[in-house]
Amino acid sequence: MTDTPLKLFNSLTRQLEEFQPIHEGEARVYSCGPTVYNYQHIGNMRAYVFADTLGRVLQWKGYKLTHVINITDVGHLTSDADEGEDKMEKMAARENKSAWDIAKFYQEDFERDLARLNVQPKQHPRATEYVEAMIAWGERIAEKHCYELESGLYFDISTVADYGRLARAVTDDGEGRIDTVEGKRNQADFAIWRKTPAGETRQMEWDSPWGRGAPGWHLECSVMGEALLGFPFDIHTGGIDHREIHHPNEIAQNQAYCCTNGLDDARNSGARIWMHNNFLVERRKDGEGGKMSKSAGEFLRLQLLVDKGYHPLAYRLMCLQAHYRSELEFSWEGLQAALTRLKRMIAGVERLRKAAAINKDELRPLDNDLPLTGADFSAVEKDFEKAISEDLNTPKALSLFEGTLSNSEYPISRLHSLQRLERTLGLNLFELERTDLRIRPKDAQLTEAEIEAELQRRKEARAAKDFASSDSIRDSLAAKGVEVMDGDPLGWEWRL
Hints:
- The protein is α/β, with parallel strands linked by helices.
- Helix content is 39%, strand content 14%.
- It contains 15 helices and 15 strands.
- The strands form five sheets. It has a four-stranded parallel beta sheet, with helices on both faces. Strands 5-6-7-8 form a four-stranded antiparallel beta sheet, covered by helices on one side.
- A hairpin with a 5-residue loop joins β11 (280-283) and β12.
- The longest helix has 25 residues, at 332-356.
- The protein is globular and about 90 Å long.
- The chain starts with 6 loop residues before the first strand and ends with a strand.
């Protein structure tokens, strides 16, 4: 390892900053999690691949990582406004289930998707576990920073300095999506507590000093961030859409709670660095496109990718191929290219193992500071670390990794070095085999055993120079959706 400093882009200051931990030797990170009223689409999941990569790099740098991803199971309305239906209540009514059952089902599905994308385990606190703490938080800030309307308790943004600096709301119209609630002092004021309307009953509601109801959506992240990480903590992450409303509101709450001043000192926001990943965008046939959402076009869940025969880690690689702050365009062709690239990388590891005459289980994980033998790859690791330390430049880091992977000299030392570097990528290259990437599509006509049997017949036909039979078997497989790649150097490869 080198001493290359880790530089990260701080959305609050709009500049690269060197990571300096608030607590020596530790990194404390909070990432805004999902509202578990429905399945998460792959655009949502890009945020967690990014956050996981950040966490992996921090650990690779030697920091003890504490990483929280909250679960929103109450309070999030159907828009960013302070009016409308609660997403959990709406889905519960539609599916004729309890809101608690809805939350449990979709949280479990979300966590399965995280595991399939090789996202390392994190803390997943649920908003409903912290309602009492949210009420206490509201009581602490209410006198100086809030006012009560018939519909609930609202935060007065004029009571804190630099509101909206994160969003650049004044110049970018960042608060334009907030609807007007009658009686608000300022258009951007937001709910701390929402009273249940007279004559209605929610499945999720609690008693509070402001009436029976439920907390506002923004409050949970402030409360859980302070409770689990302490103020100020190191890094707060989320999708770029959170930069415009949710995170400015969260920051305002944090300022009010801590009795802090303006945001020239980023720590007054509750976190020293705020980081945001850009959208996953989908191009339509008409050439137009936009951010991926649950309401636009085909609902692209991770499970749909699997149903079509794509390994989840091909999507992780697709995310790593673009810088997290750049828009990433999704296409099936791009996903197929990522899957092919992943196969080649795994094949490269297999080739090095063969050259080193060792099995997969014989290559044990190594500590970062363990010296290498047989060859010195410190220059390679220095270049890789320089790339990954420059605001998580994963596209460049991937290219450097593959360049090292393509050479078979000094295979054992090369494998050990690459194994260290791969920890930041999370692609499981040293655990998977190419056959693991063969995911049977939901509508496949043949089983893997049937395909292998046909390929064996074809090999026997070619060995007997019966090329007519060989071609006939290949064409028959192609008609059933099986592509045979004869030029594969490690043995015939195929894909559905």
